[in-house]
Amino acid sequence: MIKEFLTIITCIAAAGSLVSCGSTDSSSEATVTATETVSTRKVEIPSAAQKAIENMKEKASENAGKLKTSGGGFIDPGKEAKAVLRECINTMFTSTVEDTLKYFYPEPIYSAVINGDARNNFKSQGVPGNEVTDLRLDSSTRLAPDTGYALAEMYFNKNAESNGVTGYSAKVINGFCISFTADLVINGQKDTDSEKMILVELENDGWKVIPMSTDDLMKAVKE
Fold it and tell me: Is the separation of the CB atoms in 49 and 16 below 8 Å?
């Protein structure tokens, strides 16, 4: 349902971005990988990123198995990250697409998207009377600093490039792969929806939402 309220078509153009979810504790080496290409314009995948993608693909099944064997895990991303996620989801249902996109992008990219042609690639159906009454995290694993951070940075840098932003360089200092369940009131009717997304904290820009599951991103890079 969330994707019915906010459809992302071609604005996010981060070809080759790969996000790795690292271990949930010191005894686990679980890794979940994801990559993204959502653009009508073909973008070259840097060789370093391509090597990282191939390496992650080879290890994904093995590491996912380790996570399953260990019983999974959960790391609380903290109050600030959870607050940003809730506010982001709430705006999808209750406000304008401009309000929602603030949670997706740091200011330079946000301004370029809103003031450029890319704005037309987003569809929002938020209604003021709608409400997110509760939002619960079902799973939360930390991004691997050695791979996930760098490739999430590439995600934002590619967005900056594709939207004509110069001189911008993202620095990820924290991040999580999460799944959540939201209790909703839509047009006066109660409903429930579950989604998977990625939360990253950018230096000087705070927490941002990558509104895709890791599986979605992996499928995109394979195309």
Answer: yes
